[in-house]
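Before relying on records like the one below, remember that each one covers exactly one chain. Contacts with other chains, cofactors or solvent are not represented anywhere in the record.
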Amino acid sequence: MALNLYEDKGTPLERQRFTWKELVQPPISKLDDDAFTRVRIILMNGIEMEANRFSHACARMNRDLQLPLAQVRIVEHHQATMVNGLLGADHSTLETTVAYEQVAIEITAVVAQNEPDPYLAQVYRFGMLEDFDHLYRYSAMLDRLEGKDANNILQCYTDIVPGRPTVVEHRAPQDNLREHYHRAGAAPLTKLNALTIMSSEQQTQNFYLNVGPLYADPVARQLYAEIASIEEQHVTQYESIIDPNESWLEKWMLHEANEVYNYYGCVQQESNPRIKAIWERCLDYELGHLQVAMNLFKQYERRDPAEVLPAELPEPIKYESQREFVRRILNQEVDLRALGTQFVDKSQEGEASRQYREHVNSSGSPTDTVSAGYQWWPGTELVRGKELPFNEELARDTELIR
């Protein structure tokens, strides 16, 4: 049954409480749980963290909203703690990184297909092909550094092949901005899509910046640095498609509605009963947060929330493999480049991006280095043993890591 944002009021804010044991629950199984359970965990952590960042920014600009924002924000913080803690210590950092890229590919692919605005659908497809290549590069690093097959994490849902090469993704800032939707005419789904993908990409950027320096291997450190730079470009791209003319309270309502929307999709599709109960609790809490934001919107802006939010939410994101769609778009659009807010063939790319890329890659590209000679093989190259004698292949791989 569909949620009604004006009738389903959720848990009142004053009753939203956690204990430490509730905040730090047993994590999922890296291998036994479905990969899309992990996808949902990473996505919802990113959405919670975006809600937290927005709330802080809003509080710094709106004195009258500081108390209600603080009251909601501490709950959002605790939800983020609970959700992020569901990823266990049995995941290595690189394995978690591979999972982050699976999130970016599969979720953006769904959004690109359900987006009603053709231009914005193109924006999502453009970014998706770049994240697809990042998965390939990190999978190569996982193989080289830990001897692990990335498909243990991906569970055959997502291909491991090159996308738009990361080495050519670097662009001048003016080529990372996009045209924004218009708040008065955009479909509610368009607004929710933009917030969802921006939140996911921003969390990915922050994760790479934080974990990259933890490696001793210089190629791994550089790899995270290079791909984090593309994630910065992606955050710039996705935040620019959101109408900057929305008021602070309008944006707050949309953030809360987006959390409701995404938790609702998690509840509908979660295969782990214990994790589903967490999604249900968070959904009830977010419905309560939305009531707070809607009441403040009416109080301060003297406007009806129905001007911004529909009574019933759109169909939620489908958590299922988008392999065929990704393959088709890879075949058709891998050679697209950005020129200002538009997408053009690589032969028409602007000089500013060419010069920027030439300089940043002048000492080499870590993403090229790590994947030199790499081709994904089930079980890694240890089970291949046909193309090259084992000792020769091992020697070649060791030299590539250097």
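Strands lie at 336-339, 342-345.
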